[in-house]
Amino acid sequence: MTVTPVVTLRLMMPPDGDTNHVPLRAAWCDRQGGWQSAVFVCPEEVAARFAASRLEICPHPADISMTGITLPPLRPRQQRLAVSGAVELLALTPPQDLAIGHGLRGETGVLPVAWMAEGRVAQLLASLRQAGLQPDAILPPPAFLPQPEEGCAALQVVDGWAVVRSGASEGGLYPLLAQGTEAEHLARLQAHLPAIGQLVWPDSNSVMSGDGWAWGLPLNREPGTEKSSGWRRPACIWGLLALVVWLGGLTFEARKREAQGLALKQQMTAQVKAAFPGLTVVINPLQQARQLREARDKGTATAPAQDFATLLRAASAILPRMDAQVQQLSYRQGVLDIRWRDGAALRKEEAAAMQAHAGERQVTVVTDGQGVKLSAAQPVAEPRS
Fold it and tell me: How many CA atoms lie within 13 A of 361 on its CB side?
């Protein structure tokens, strides 16, 4: 069999990573930028057919979860902790057992995130490496779809799942009804995507040709599996050295100013915590200090301020186990809003137990048919004598 050199090779994985018994759908980009696709019997056949500069894989929609999390502006470390905490609540699984990836926080405050069981990722990579394939990236399924025009979204149906790409690095996965017409499926998806004006079905030749996606799941290579770069490695090293020298002077002043800004923020944070000992986490010291001062002047600042992290911990403690039933989580103006998936709801005894434990955590819980909202409990004013 003739080996075909390609720039990018993409594989859409079968459910449960069963590469031995289910055909693999592949797409490849040649040196002229053209895309082609085909179905192969097994990964060994793909390895024998192609010599790819880059191999990208996407898990089956049933094996990976995606959502958007609304967060305030945070430093990178704080953002990672917030994402891990939110995913733990959504997946009901310890973060250390998950492979978690996320994109950048958008203008609306929504951060796209995806996660998958770490064991499933390791099993998938092991089966591909055994067949002679070395993946360079694990991308969520929407990444393979063509990037849509503004106000539109690209749509593909895969084994009862709707794969939607709604932006450069945003998308979602939605289970479809077992019985339903195409019009009913589109109406259901449109309800989940109110900001999208039109759903576009890419043709079969371009359905896996998407570009511009900027994030994926973490990929840990096994020792000794790095690809050889041949003669390109010395050239890359010299190029990187030249780039480092050029950037050194440019970044020195930026780092100096960043350090000054960080020191100033740390000083402000310390002053705010000293003035308000009940404050557990300081994200925006100036804004939080102003809000707490106004509350104290009005005589309402008698209880410790509740922040995102505090409410998230309280939610993890008082919410009943809702396996895979959480659709969205957002935090705005001191309120943690948790939305259920369609058809999910708390039973009456679960809601009663949650309300009973809410008082112990000093939080107020408001339930409705679509989810729950948590906020700091307001202190009860003592009657005047």
Answer: 23
- Low-confidence stretches of the chain (pLDDT beneath 50): 221-247, 250, 301-306, 382, 385
H helices of 228-360, in order, are 232-275, 285-297, 308-318, 348-360
Tokens describing residue 2: 């003739």
Q: CA dihedral in degrees (105, 168, 192, 163; nearest 10)?
A: -130
Length of the chain: 385
CB–CB of 38/32 below 8 Å?
no
Global pTM?
0.62
pLDDT in tens, 338-373: 888 776 778 888 888 888 888 887 888 898 878 889
Q: Which residues pair with 373 in a beta bridge?
A: 337, 366
On the 0-12 / 13-18 / 19+ scale of CB atoms within 10 A, 61 is buried
At a CB cut-off of 8 Å and minimum separation 6, what does 262 contact? Answer: none
- 323 CB-contact burial (10 Å; exposed 0-12 / middle 13-18 / buried 19+): exposed
How do 65-70 and 4-12 pair as beta strands?
A: unpaired
Measured on CA atoms in the order 85, 89, 91, 95, is the torsion positive or negative?
positive
The amino acid at 319: L
Pairwise CA distance, residues 306 & 279, whole Å: 8
pLDDT, tens digit, 9 for 90 and up, residues 228-241: 444 344 433 443 44
Helix (H, G, I), strand (E, B) or coil at 113: strand
Is residue 138 within 8 A of residue 121, CB to CB? The reply is yes
What would the DSSP string read from start to end of 42-95?
A: -HHHHHHHEEEEEEEEE--GGG-EEEEEE-----HHHHHHHHHHHHHHHH-S-G
Residue with tokens 């100013």: 257
Structural contact between residues 8 and 118, judged by C-beta atoms closer than 8 angstroms: no
- Secondary structure (H, E, C), 225-257: CCCCCCCHHHHHHHHHHHHHHHHHHHHHHHHHH
